[in-house]
Amino acid sequence: MKELRIDYNLKDKLDLYVFIPVVSLILLGLISIYSATYANTLAQSNFEKQLYFVLAAILIFLIVHFLPTNTFKFISIPSYIFSILLLILVLIIGKKVSGSKSWIGFGIFSFQPSEFAKIATILMLSNFLSRNNTQINSFRDILFALAIGFTPVFLILLEPDMGSSLVYMFLILVLLFKKGISLFWLIVVISPAMTAISAIFGLTTFIVTLIFLLGVLFYLNKDLFLNSSVLALNLAAGFFADYVFNLLSPHQQARILSFLDPFSDPLGTGYNSIQSMVAVGSGGLFGKGFMNGNQTQLQYIPEQWTDFIFCSISEEFGFIGSTLVIILFLVLLIRILKNSSQTKDEFLSLTQVGIFSVLFIHFFINVGMVIGLVPIIGVPLPFVSYGGSSLITNVIMISIVTNIYRTRKNYA
Amino acid sequence: MNKLGYYSFDRNKILNVLLWIVSLVFLIRLFQMQIINHKMYDEKSAENSIKAIEQIPFRGVFYDRNLNLLVDNVPAYTLRITPAGYDTNLNKILDAVLGFEEGSVSNILRKNRIYSKYVPIRIKRGVDFKVISWYEENSNFLPGVDYIVEMQRAYPFGVMGSHLFGYSKEISAKQYKLEKDYYRPGDYVGHNGIEKSYETELRGKKGFKYVLVDSKRKEIGRYKDGQMDKESIKGKDLVLSIDGFAQKTAEEELKGKRGAVVAIEPSTGEILTLVSSPDYDLNQFSYVTTKEFLNKIYNDPANPLFNRATMSLKPPGSTFKILCAIVALDMGLIDKNTTIHCGGGFTFGRFFKCHGSHGAVDVLRAIEKSCNTFFYQLIYKIGLNNLKKYAMEFGFSKKTGIDIGEEAAGLITDESYYERIYGKNWPRSILASLGIGQGEISVTPLQLAFFTALVANNGKSFTPHVVKGYLDNNTNTIIKYNFDEVKTSVKKEVFDIVKKGMFLVVNGNGTATHIRSKDYNIAGKTGTAQNPHGKDHALFIGFAPYENPKIAIAVVIENVGFGGTHAAPIAKKVIDSYLTKGKFVYSGKDVFSYNLGERIEN
Q: Do B147 and B257 belong together in one domain?
């Protein structure tokens, strides 16, 4: 009797700790998009469009939520291959929007393959890492996992879309970490990125980073051959990064550099950073009120309904509003992590951690850049920012989480 | 290393901690920005989006003493360019449309480069309406170009008043630096005349309209529905002491001549007429000043910009004999009955001639006939230092303190002056010609007029001034400005004698009997200043009516000859138009009521 009663309880069928924060964030997003686009004649239709996206997202949620849970493992390989093909296709027939070739259009409808490929990559990596014979601390398997993860990264960098690439890299790292990669191998994996970043800051930082890295590696592992290979890899990464940095479009270079000192060029590259901080700071405790944020209403921040939507919320609803957003994300992300811990099936557990990592890195970069802690990197705030591809991708990921929760007893 | 663990549960915990750290850092940062530093960001935000638009008030207008409108404001179109949004390819088109020489627009833009490119630059004032309608039709193709309606000066009474009123022009970079707290680049400020000296009264107080602008500085609405706006306050409407009719008459009389006329109301020091000729059209300065006009005016040998009334220095000639007579009488060196024999001249080292042989002359006859011999002798009795002392009491050799523009101090020498040049034994023969107002002695027409006013009013008057006060539009009364009283130490009896002498000049057998009037009695004195460079300068000082002086006047005409012939008739016409033509409505009270509605009906 007791078992039956629980079965009929909504809380038992639907993970409300996931569902309620997501619904709240989507509603908050709609309100803010309405406000942020109200004064912009070109973007006024975006609120209405977002409403349709939400309707589509509800439909997709209902489908994915009720799929048999083993579907996800089943479709992981085909969906991954399909995604890679789309990412190649977008480079050929894609539309260029603000400097990046990241959109595929079908008539009036267009989408970003890099968004949907996130799900496929999570599934594919989880699938690979959860195989019985995967040795996470073996060079071969790490390389294989990196190959799966970096194929989309490479294609997305060609668009170029810096923000999405970062999301993928973080996803790969978290999944390897979750799978149990050793500290040594973790550092080996991270080190090229570290040296690459340090190379941008100049030769001295680059050399210091290399020496430091070498020290750590020898402390963790005495294998001379392996360490020399890693060093060689890092040297290559450093020079490659310097080369790529010089290839980057000037606005991206400027964005990275202006983060160092946004006030050095207040009307140029630091402009967005300053204006978004002014918007947030001027919100105060209670905010300026819905539709009353002058920074928002006067279009000080370009395209604020997308990547800078958190500005509008912070300005118009103040510290209360921005805190609410943080808390909603905190609740959602903690819950996904907890669900992942309680899922005994390794594929599903990894999938949920992958979903966690994608949502978390979006949250971190987006809010961080608005409040001046992270360079301006264009990634949307999940569920809140305007954008169909992003919303639907995120809702699919959430429905995977609720799907697993729904059938959790089968895997307990 | 092992502590990291190989168990997924532990690793989730680490991710959990990472999540908490990030969230807490975000919350702390948000608290810092939105609560602690809120004020700073709020100010920045307001600065960003609220633009204060200056409301330039109407400049005060000028009325004459009878409240005739002399200087008014009329609307005019001004075309502007805001460099930030402007396409310089349009330069040529604008040059053509505005009728400029090619390259003019680009020149103006270059000159104004020092200012922010978001500050509009005035390209042309007084733009024709045709140009404005052309702009309206094509404004879509003219980014960064706009026009505003500005007020410009108009002179409805037909009085030129070039040197009196002065004009306004765009503030110079130098002056802007000094008064940054009020002016903005492109503001117009009084440049000379009354416009300059009463600038702070005339300009009123700028207002501010606060509007919301978007990130492109485009206006999109009022800030707080205009609650914060500050209304501009109109400049004060000045009531001049000038009599429009007399001024107009003097201007007409001086046409084609070089010289000046200054008339003063003796009892108040109020200037009734102040004309310097040649003059120039203030409209040419008020609207856009063309290059041709500037070239013409700067290259004119007669120098129209020079204010002869307050700046030109000429020997006073025989008009100065009045002062010598006053000094001698006041010092008791002579009395009414003292006579001196005139045999046609005077010898002191050399022979100084008189223009006649007047026999035994007393002071009255000496003034009437302008006898040189009498005054040659008088000056040696007076002595140079005493002459200078009295001269300064009557406003010579120093600035009068008139309330407009620049003024020259003039020169009356004293003994130390010659000692410096010639040493202790300076030639005393110099004195003789000083006694008849020739030689090393110079005065301005204004000083002469003021001197005459002091004589007419028995040694008492006020610092000469052209502005009486301003019209208070709320109460329709004139609020008067205060001016210092000027008082001489000379006894009244002395003035009676001298004035009688001046009466005889016109009404006896004197040098200006041809300007005698049957309506009132004019008293005066002619003068002819010797000019080593050409024809003599003609002078006349006088006042009327003799019994109760209402106007004192000085006329100086350059290079025409005898004062009685050339200066006196002009003086008469000005006196005439003041005393008879102009309706004398001023009640004489400090504050009087005036119905503005009546003026509009008129």
A: no
Query: Does residue B474 or residue A322 have the better pLDDT?
Result: A322
* Number of domains within chain B: 3
Distance in Å, alpha carbon of B7 to nearest chain A alpha carbon: 7
CA-closest candidate to residue B272, choices B581, B585, B578, B592: B578
Q: Would the pTM of this model clear 0.90, i.e. be above it?
A: no
Mark whether B402 and B511 lie in a shared domain: yes
Of B124-128, B275-279, B598-602, the poorest mean pLDDT is in B598-602
Show residues of chain B in contact with A182, CB under 8 Å. 1, 4
B29 and B91 in a single domain? The answer is no
Q: List Cα–Cα distances, B494 to B323, B331, B335, B363, in angstroms.
A: 11, 10, 9, 11
User: What does the alpha-carbon distance between residue B576 and residue B586 come to, in Å, rounded to a whole number?
Assistant: 17
Residues B508 and B565 in one domain: yes
Cβ contacts (< 8 Å) between A322 and chain B: which residues? 30, 34
| B446 domain residue, yes or no | yes
Q: How far is A326 from chain B (nearest CA, A)?
A: 7
Q: Write the DSSP string, B275-310.
A: EEES---HHHHHSPPPHHHHHHHHH-TT-TTS-HHH
Nearest CA-CA distance, residue B212 and chain A, Å = 8
**B268 inside domain:** yes
State both tokens at A377: 């990197």
Domain ranges of chain A: 2-411
Q: Which residues of A touch B1 (CB under 8 A)?
A: 182-184, 220
Chain A residues with beta carbon closer than 8 angstroms to that of B14: 177
- How far apart CA B406 and CA B555 sit, in angstroms, is 19
Give me the domain span that covers residue B12: 2-36
Q: What is the pLDDT of residue A183?
A: 84
pLDDT band at B412 (very low <50, low <70, confident <90, very high): very high
Instruction: Choose, out of B23, B25, B32, the residue to mutate when testing the contact with A (most A CBs < 10 Å).
Output: B23
Looking up residue B126, the CATH number of its domain turns out to be 3.90.1310.10
